Amino acid sequence: MRLTRRQALPALGLALPALARAQGGWPTRPIRMVIPYPPGGASDIIARLLQPHLTELLGQTLVVENRPGANGFIAGELVARSAPDGYTLLMANAGPNGMGPALYGSRTPYDAIRDFSAVMAVSVVPLVLGVHPTVPAGTIAQFLAHARAQAGRMSYGTAGIGSAGHMAMELLKSLTGAEITHIPYRGSAPTAADLIAGVIPASVDTAPSLLPHIAAGRVKGVAIFSSPRLTEAPDLAPVSETVPGCEAVSWGGVLAPAATPPAILAKLNAALNQAMARPDVEAALRRQGIQPQRGTPEAFGDYVRAEVTKWTGVVQRMGLRPD
Question: What domains lie within the chain, and their CATH numbers?
Answer without folding.
Answer: 12-125+249-318 (3.40.190.150), 126-241 (3.40.190.10)
